[in-house]
Amino acid sequence: MSEAEEVSRAVSALYGSNAQQQAEANRWLMAFAERPAAWDVCRELVLAGPAQEIQFFGANVLHTKVRREWHGLALEARQQAFGALSALVVAAVRREQPNGMTAGLATRMLVSKRLCLALGAAAAQQAELCAPCVQMALELGTGEHGPAGAIAAFALLCALVDEVELLANGAAGGGGYGVHSSAGGGASPLQPPPSPQQHASASTARASAFDLRPFATPVAQLVEAHVATAAGRMPPLAELRRAALHCFRAWAALDGEALSVRALAARHASLLEGLLGALGEQDIAEAAADALCEVCSLEFVSLTVEQTDVHLAASIAERFLRLQPQLKQALAHRTGSSGAQADEWAAAFTRALGQFGACAARPLACASAGGSAESAQLQQLVLLMLESASYPTHAASENLVDAWVSLQDVPMHARVDAMRAPLYEQLLTVTITRCMWPDVRGARAARGVSSAATAAAAAGAAVAAADNGGGGDDDDDDDDERAEFEKWRHQSAAEVITCCLAALGGAFFSSALASLLPAEPPASAEAWTGAWRRIEVVAFALAAVHAELKSKLRAVESQPSAPPTTPTGSGSPLVASRASGAGALTLDKAAVDSALAQLLNIALALPAVAASAAHFPANGANGASGANGGRGGGGGGRGADIAAVVDWRLLPALCTFIGSFGSWVKARPQLIDRTLELLLAAAGAHAPCPGGGSELAASLAAVGRAVPAGAREAPRLHLTAAEAFRNVCAHCSAELAIGQHGGTSLVTVLVRRVCPLLNSGARIVVGDGGPCGQDARVPLAEALGRLVAAVEPIDANVATHALQELVGTPARSLRGLVSRAGESGAGVATAGGARKPAAELCAAMAHELQLITASVRFCDGDASRRSSRLVSMRASAAAAGAGAGASAPGVGGATFGTHPVSPLIAVISEVWPLLEELSVASGGDVLVVDALLDLLARAILCGKALLAGHLPQMLALAVDAFGATRALGALALFKAAIEVHGAALKLADECPTDAAGLDAAPPALRDALAHALAAMTVTALRPLLSAPSPLDGSGARAAGAASSTELRAAAAAEESEPQLLNDFFELMQRVLVFSPMLILGPLVQSASSTPHARTFAQVVDACARCVAHQEPTHTRASITFACQLVRGCADGTAPGAARKGCALPSTAIEPHGAMLTLSCLLGLTSFSAEGLVDHQCELLRVLLQCSAPHLSAQWLAAAFQHRALLEAVAPAGEANSELFLRLLVHRPPLKHDAIAREFSRMCRREGGVDGLGQFVPTA
């Protein structure tokens, strides 16, 4: 049996149904594909394979071997392989040529397409083959090979560009040897690892890209011949035209200037006409849109207001306008069986329209309005864009966002009148109308807005539909559709609304918004039924533009404004702003204030309305949960009224609006209490607040039980309200800190009000914010924690009691969870026989820890900052007290400056035993450990020197947790400890500096830091240090030195935890800056027998191994650390430590210099990604310049004896390697980093053979 027959049998087994035979065939085929004989065998399979899958396997192996082994072939062998591949492509095309039946032709051409990929990969790696490759494609496309030849030609041209881009980006990967991934739909069982040569061809690929550009014109002509339809000639096959369009898109991306829309109009007018015509054909519209978007890319072209560009824009606009009836037809067909196809075509059409609109923004905005035909066409195109924005699918609207944003780049004074306020008023109306909830969108879709001129009428009809109850509730809508709608609103629609604000200025408030917001708050539940959707969309719009609005207000805040007012029924300020002519491009601050106050006043009316409608049984027994979710159907009753008042879509919008304008609420103290009442009620608080009763909270709870949508959406509502409460408290913390209610601090009242909410875990939004969901209680705890921090300078007693009560709630819950975890038989048995708490219990523990962290994160323990806040608060409160004839606020006789003990210290001291017990009871669960370490790190940063007494215990706990789980939070905790106690204690100078140069910290603290660092180093570097370094053996070419393949295998294992290595070396950088003697102390003391003497050697050894790694993040961190360390040793001073006693011996780095040098050279010559080369060149420069000349010469000589490095530098040649060494050791020193960078290019086959000659000094 011949080898080709054996391969055929193995491939057949691979496609069989026997799993064991498939696995055996897979292994055998993988081994076969690595053999040199596979080239000839696969060529035979392609030519004479008995089945298509066998032919495809042969073509696929050839493609993979070209990618992996092309650079290993001799030049003559490459030429022969390229010729053989070309012949195989032609033979496959002839075999696949259709005999009468052309349908499905592209899917039958698997073999020829795969061969085209191989041919393109070969040409991309060898610049001189690009011209023959393109020429062959042109012959296939224009010769006698028919449709199959043309499709193959376009596949070859696409493959060439794709391979060039892959290599240029350093991302070329070996394709699978098997056929499942392409023909069977599964994962390829024969996926090879990437080849070293794949990372050595970026420069060659860029050169190939440069060489391809001269072929852009003939390629465009080939595409033009197959896309453009001449008069009297039938259009080519759709499959063929689609292939041509894909090819053109790829080449346009490669050379956008030569194939831009402007260049096409000048040199390939019929091709541009063909692209626009293809956009109207259902089968190829998507491919045509891809091509049009590429030629209109803003990266290469932006049309100007010159006459030629205006004429071009108008001619293209005319072609788009021809498709306007087709857009109307698509809208009409949406409800039929072809609705999906209509939406797909509309998405492609609007994508091309939006990209062209962005490209032609200046002609569209500035074309003369003198009545010319061109001006009319451009203005009609803008109206078409408005009409397309009304198409019901979100994709159609999203596709036009770039066009509206690009129009904003054109100054208003340069535009024609129609492109100013009138355009944006219509755009705002269309967008706001679409932003109403789905029943309103359904009403609009049924009407089918056909032009911008009818947008306002459609908006009025939509509002009328909302007033009449709409078309039903969306509670039963598909979750995916609702998520898509919300995503579109918060991304695309918000961006368009922001553009409208920037363009309209004051008119923004007097356009679409004025007709939507009622002049007075609805006074009854019945009135809310028809108004809630309009109120909700206005709240959403104002929250969406809050950043832009604040920016504009800052520009005019120096202007005097009217006193802030709260409307009480005297008419709508939105309507008033229109009547007073506030439609200029600048904002009237008074009008904005009135508009915001009006909406807030409507929101604050909710509790009173809820109270009037809340008289129904708490379980909703009298019809609240009717067929329509309690909204007017199935019995109606008070339950339906309440559901309308507290609709689960209205309240989140109002809460988001309030949270976005927290600074505005701060300027109106009379609104703060009522605002907090609304937010806490929405968050679920039932106890009364100083600002009013809790009727709304009771109504929300009742509806949550009665209406299914309420129960489902309650956690998200609670989260939104809690975040808004946090924002308002952040802005109003000073006002709330000095506030009193009935002789009690307002902060104490708020803490007591909110603490019951912290008992419940039902406010966790599953699927958001991390592996255990996002807890709506955390923002509440953060808000109160900020208020506690604000009240601390006024009265530490109040702050301490409030923080204890705030932390006490989750602490009690946590204690109960720990008790449950310790119950006999609880949890899940682990492999070691121990029992670990159930996942739900661990998640609950993590949530309670997050609450404690949120409560203490703002308790600043820095005495100087507390003192500055104290002076400021004292002055403001004293001034207020003098005006009112009262003493400064205080509780229990406490006065300003009374700080018996820090609230943070009191709280941490109370919960510390619980935290120690938790660390054991959690069984090492990752969620619990991460949350616990985050709490401790935050406490260290906040408490600073005040927590120094607890630090040894915290470090011990972190070391144990890191050893058990390798949790990254332990490194973050140690980093916090170093930042606080490595620098702050020095500057405070609380104790004399130790003679050995260690930080001025108590001995126990210094010992704890040193022990923790040593233990964490051993744990973090265990995978690296568990085996001998593969970099050893650098002194000989003998068998002891590892090859480049062995080094790469070792590096792959060492890089298994890149994030941990990155965090570790970043920590080491902080140690060098803040407390360097923790790792350098043994060197200074010459005490190699100390317990931590090996820390330095371990860190540098690991660093040297990582310098040549592939993963960029931790490799950069290790290089940065090495540079810091080498510079510090060269200066004789620890980096960042200029104090006496920190001097380092100049020989500190000597034992590690050879390994660092070798690793650096390996990385920059071939091992590491191209983006790391500059960093490695910098490290090499630092090593050479910061060491004695004889040492650097020894390190370099030893490195160039290592087997792996000799293999890596082989492409540069022996002569260039010797020259590289001479240049590096030259005295006076030359530009080491530039020399290394050029040598790197030569070793990676990216530079010329004489590239180092430019650095040779002249006589």
UniProtKB/TrEMBL annotation:
GO terms for biological process: protein import into nucleus. It comes from Diacronema lutheri. This is Importin N-terminal domain-containing protein. Residues 182-203, 555-574 are annotated as: Disordered. It comes from the Eukaryota. One of its GO terms (cellular component) is cytoplasm.
